[in-house]
Amino acid sequence: MKFLINICRVLVGVLFIFSGLIKANDPIGLSYKMQEFFDLWKMSWLDGISLALAIAMIAFEIIAGVALLLGWKKKLISWLLLLLIVFFTFLTGYAYLSGKFSNCGCFGDCIPISSQTSFLKDIALLLLILVLFFNRTYIQPLFAARATGVLLLISAALSLGIQWYTLHYLPVLDCLPFKVGSYIPDKLKVPANAIPDSTEITFVYEKAGKKMEFNADHFPDDFNDSLYKFIDRYDKVIRKGTNAIPEIRGFDFQNSAGATITQDILNAGYAVLLFHEDPSIALNKWAGGFAPIYQAAAQKNIPVYIISSLAPLVKQEIAATGFKNAEVLAGDRVMIRMASRTNPTVYLFKKGTVMGKWSYKNFDAAVHALQGLPALPPPVHQDAVLTDSLLKK
Known about the structure:
Radius of gyration: 27 Å
Number of domains: 3
Helix content: 40-55%
Order of helices and strands: HHHHHHHEEEHEHEHEHEEHH
Shape: flat
Mean pLDDT: 89
Strand order of the largest sheet: 6-5-4-7-8
Number of helices: 13
Distance between the termini: 95 Å
Low-confidence stretches: none
Structural class: alpha/beta
C-alpha cells in the first residue's frame, strides 16, 4: 500500500507543479479565462481581482505540489488538494457539460486541451487525491523540517517570481498566435482541416397570433399568404463544425476617418505597432521608452501605429508626447488583449510577419532592432501623386 500511495503522491504532486508552471508562464491569460466564467455567471464585479486570483491560484498549485512531494503538513495539504480538485472538477465539468467553453485554460495556451479532456483529467486526479486523502498516514516527510521549510520557501519565491517576470517582460514561452515568426495573414484564415457548421435556412411565420418555425422541406400543408405572416428567416445550426475558428479574430483596424487600413499594415515593408489596451498603465511608465522607438522608426521611414480599443482617449493622452503624431487606430479589445500580454506591447512587422515583440519594460531592445534595419523609401503623399499626374497631362 505504501508503494501505491507514493506513486499517487508523485503523480499528483508533479502534475500540480507542471500545471502551475505552465500557467505561471502567462498568468494574465488565466485571469482572462476567469473573467469569461465571471461574466457568464453575472459576477463581473470580480473582474478587477481576477489577476490577483490567478496569481494566487497558480502559486498555490506549485507550492501544494511541492509540499505533497516533500510530505509537509500532510493532513492540511490533503484537505487543501481535495478542496481544490473538487473546485476544478466543478469548473471543468461545467465547461464541458454546458458546452459554453471549448477550453478551460487548465494548461494555458501552450497545451490547449478540450473541455472534455480537462474534465476527465480532473476526475482522474480527484480519484488519486481521494486515495491519498484516506491513506495519508503512509505519507512521510522526505527531509528534516528545516530543509523542507527552505525548499518550500524556494518554491514560493519561484512561483511568484516567474509570474512577476512574465507580467512585466512577456511570457518566456510564447504560445500565442502573435509569437515571433508568425505570418499574420495565415492566422486570420480558417484552418485547412476545419469542418464548418452545418446549417439550414429556417423561416419564422406567425399564424393566428402564434409564431412557428420550419425549414424549406417542411412547410405546413395549409401554408398560404393569407394564413401565415412572414416574420423572419435565419440560418439554424444543425451540426456544429470543428476547428472552424481562425487563430486570430478581430484583426481589423480603423483610422480616425473610419477607414480600415489593416491590409496596408500587413503589406508594409516594415511597420511598428504599439498595442495599448487601456490607460491602466500610466503614460509616464512607458512614454519615455516609446519616444526613441518612434524616432528610430521615423528615421527609417517606417510607419508607426498605436492600436487601442479606446483610440480617442489614447489620442488625447499622447498629445503632449514626442510621438503625438503617431497614428492611433481603433481595434478590437479581445484581440488587443491577446496580442498585448503586457500593456503596452510593441511589435515589428515585416510584410505581415512578426519580426519582434517587446514589453514596455524592454523598449530599448526594440530601438536597437529598428536601428539595424534598412531605411524604407519616403512615403508618397496623395497630393504629390496628384500633382505629378497633372504635370504629365
